[in-house]
Amino acid sequence: MESVIARLEELMQAENSFEQIRAEVSDLRASFMNKLREKNKKLREEHKEAGGAPEEFETPKEPLFDKFKSLLDVFNEKREVYIQKREAERKRREEELQKKLAARKEVIAEMKALVDSKEEQLNKAFDGFNAIQEKWKAIGRLGGDEAKNQQIDYNHQVDLFYHHVNMLKEARDFDYMRNWTEKAKILEKMEALLPIENIRQLETEMKVCQSEWKKAGPLPMTKREEANAKYMELADQIYGRIKTHYDSLRESQQGNYEGKQALIEKV
Fold first, then answer.
1. Mean pLDDT across the stretch 165-190?
2. Using CB atoms within 10 A as the burial measure, which of 59, 119, 248, 253 is most buried?
3. Residue 52: left if φ>0, alpha if ψ -120 to 50, beta else—which one?
4. Do 136 and 154 touch, CB atoms closer than 8 A?
5. Is the pLDDT of residue 256 over 70?
């Protein structure tokens, strides 16, 4: 029993935490009480062997019991401090969880607003989506039923966003193909202008083609460079003919002017 007391004193004086010593203290307490029971049992048997009546036996006070109890009191104080700290930590974690759940709720509301906005510009839509995704990731994983339900809600909104994006892509692809059809027709009209001899007619119809080309929407990347190159090639040919015509006309007019000036001088 003295060894139990000595070990308890070591544990109570050391800087060990409650968690580090509670298992050993529990064993030491059980050991002390077992030894005390064995000691009292032995004294009872000795009393009986000496001819004493069992009912006359009085369990003597153990000299080490007060010391044992005082050491357990110190241990119980450590346990109370540990329980208070654990409760404070539990409250802190609960408060942090509630803050994160509230933050998640705001992020889900942002995602819903983005989905409901039906943003038609893909780049702008994805900029907003990526910003919301970063906020969600920054909050991190959370446990509990509410967090699980939030994750399900958030995933649903993400699915709705991608569904909207896919619809936008399909609409954009449709617009691209329609624009390509329109511009292909414009290129055909421009090719048909090449044989026209009447420069005024050529110039007028080329301006119409140029206006139609500007009004037609954008093309898919796979067709854009090819179409623009073809358009510039035909435009250069047509405007080249127009420029040549007007240059020749100006030269002819300059010749007429000079001839008339000579006549004036003769007169």
1. 84
2. 119
3. beta
4. yes
5. no
With a CB cutoff of 8 Å and minimum separation 6, the contacts of 173 are 220
Mean pLDDT of the chain: 86
Q: Six-digit token pair at 162? A: 């991608």
**CA–CA separation, 209 and 238 (whole Å):** 11
Contacts of 75 (CB under 8 A, 6+ apart): 8, 11, 12, 21, 22, 25
**In the predicted model, what is the mean pLDDT of residues 125-133?**
89
188: left (phi over 0), alpha (psi -120 to 50) or beta: alpha
Burial 96-134 (b: 16+ CB within 10 A, else e): eeeebeeebeebbebbbebbeeebeeeeebeebbeebbe
Kindly tell me if the per-residue pLDDT of 86 is higher than 80: yes
Contacts of 107 (CB under 8 A, 6+ apart): 132, 135, 136, 139, 154
Q: What's the CA dihedral at 174, 133, 131, 114 to 10 degrees?
A: 50
Tokens (6 digits) for 121: 């510009």
- Kindly state the average pLDDT of the residues 43-56: 79
213 Cβ partners below 8 Å, 6+ apart? 183, 186, 231
The pair of three-digit structure tokens given for residue 67, joined into one six-digit string = 């010391």
Contact call for residues 132 and 107 (beta carbons, < 8 A): yes
Structure tokens at 194: 């090449």
Calpha distance 155→53 (Å, rounded): 81
Cβ atoms of 21 and 83 closer than 8 Å: no
Reading the block at residue 225, the tokens are 């460079």
Kindly give, in sequence order, each residue whose CB lies less than 8 Å from that of residue 227, ignoring residues fewer than 6 positions away: 180, 183, 184, 187, 219
pLDDT class of 106 with cuts at 50, 70, 90 = very high
pLDDT at 156: 93
